[in-house]
Amino acid sequence: MIRRLGSHTGKRVLFGYDRYLASSTADLEAYRTVLSAFGEVVDAVNHGHLHYLTSAEMVCRGIQADPDAVGVLCCGTGMGMSIAANKFQGIYAARCTSVEDAELARTINNANVVCIASKYGLALNGQILQAFATTPYTGRKLEELEYITSFEQPTFADRLTAPTQPGVPSG
User: Fold this and answer.
1) 22, 47 Cβ separation under 8 angstroms
2) Of 60, 74, 75, 115, which one is the catalytic site residue?
3) In 65, 113, 117, 119, which residue has its Cα 20 to 30 A from 77's Cα atom?
């Protein structure tokens, strides 16, 4: 995933949310409408147990099964979902509270999940989602991103005693 170039436009969007967004049917539909401009939107929530953790898990497992998909997670602050999402291998989630955050999450970190705060409202979040979906990753800082992905490997602890780490930028 980390080497995939380009934007997220046209990809399947796995949409997870919690009770803060689900409490307003109008808001929920408005978010789906915004997201549908970028690709097919699939709700990834457990309606029997609507919680930020179950939604984060469903989105992340969905992306693991379909690495070409992208995730959007929306909860009260976006923080809990981003922490939970980043526990899944192959998931690179960024909590974004500004358009600039979303652009940098794509151009520098090649994030495949964006976490937004419902408390900021659709006007700002719509701009964040647009930036996240349309900003392409062009390969910037690829060496560092590949090093980050090595943290997911169970053998990482064995490397801690190595005197130097190949591929790690100095300074």
Assistant:
1) no
2) 75
3) 65
Q: What is the DSSP letter of 8?
A: -
Closest-CA residue to 20 (of 113, 125, 111): 125
The Cα–Cα gap between 55 and 74 comes to 9
The residue written with tokens 């090093």 in the block is: 147
Q: For 49-75, what is each residue's pLDDT tens digit?
A: 999 999 999 999 999 999 999 999 999
When pLDDT is cut at 50, 70 and 90, the band that residue 141 belongs to is confident
Residues 107, 138, 136, 67: is their CA dihedral positive or negative? Answer: negative
115: which residues sit within 8 A by CB, 6+ positions away?
73, 74, 75, 78, 79, 81, 82, 85, 93, 94, 95, 96
C-beta of residue 111 within 8 angstroms of C-beta of residue 8 = no
Does pLDDT of 154 surpass 80? Answer: no
Cβ atoms of 69 and 89 within 8 Å: the answer is no
Q: Is residue 50 classed as helix, strand or coil in its secondary structure?
A: coil
Residue 75 appears among annotated catalytic residues = yes
Determine how many CB atoms are found less than 10 A away from the CB of residue 153. 11
